[in-house]
Design a protein that fits this description.
Distance between the termini of chain A: 53 Å
Shape of chain A: elongated
Oligomer: homodimer
Helix content of chain A: 55-70%
Order of helices and strands of chain A: HHHEHHEEH
Radius of gyration of chain A: 20 Å
DNA sequence: ATAATATATGAACACAAGCTCATATGAAAG
DNA sequence: CTTTCATATGAGCTTGTGTTCATATATTAT
């Protein structure tokens, strides 16, 4: 006698097939984790238009220079941004166009699905 | 005398122009935060192939039923998955094809840029 | 060399987030 | 209506993460 209405077993197997290796799943989550912070998201958006030095980003976001530097390090370590020295200042820029497309996808998801100030 | 080699001011203004509202930035970060956990990523991948009930996902991931339920709630609250009741079991499925494309973008970023077991 | 400017970094702290454990809900079977 | 099966949920604990504060490094100017 079947106790479930949908097949319990073949569905599991199919799901198991498509599951990537644990390491990749973990790396993937770690990548998205980088985008999962408002400060970092703001930094990325600011670099969408122009390359900027630390002080400029600090001003733009109205935060501590230290806080910005810490987040810049996170972003740089994950290869999403890169920097070059120019005299005393260090200029940061996007390392990769994937950043734009990933953030763009999320942006689309929000602006399409959700309704920002649509009656109230 | 200019103390900076790149223009400090117009770049800032340009960056300020393209910066979306704080609320949207925050929502965007919150969206990516959902993808930034291995357990949730595994759940999403498992639902890429088949719709599954809680017990199946629990088996598949080899975790506590409680842990899974908690994460399913997070995913459901953020509208990435949905569910329907079928007798005693509750079946979860992807709510949106954006999920596939967002995860797909991240996946591409990793598999293209990085080199998985490419000579060690 | 010394001072000034620009950025980076480590430690400490506060808060968020995920898991576990116990328990609650809800549907179906006896 | 009581029991069983499937899932949900709240509290507590533990770990992770972002910010601040103080300080270090690095480059340029005096």
């Amino acid at each position: 006698m079947e106790q479930h209405m949908h097949d319990h077993g073949s569905a599991l197997d199919t799901a198991r097939q498509g599951m990537p290796a644990d390491e990749l799943l973990c790396d993937l989550a770690d990548l998205f984790k980088i985008f999962g912070d408002t400060t970092r998201m703001k930094i990325l958006f600011s670099l969408f238009e122009e390359e900027l030095c630390v002080n400029e980003i600090t001003e733009l976001l109205g935060m501590t220079q230290s806080a910005i530097s810490h987040q810049l390090k996170v972003l740089k370590d994950s290869k999403l941004i890169a920097n070059r020295r120019e005299g005393k200042t260090i200029i940061y820029f996007l390392a990769d166009d994937h950043v734009r497309s990933i953030v763009g996808q999320g942006y689309e998801h929000l602006t399409e699905e959700n309704h920002y100030d649509e009656n109230i």
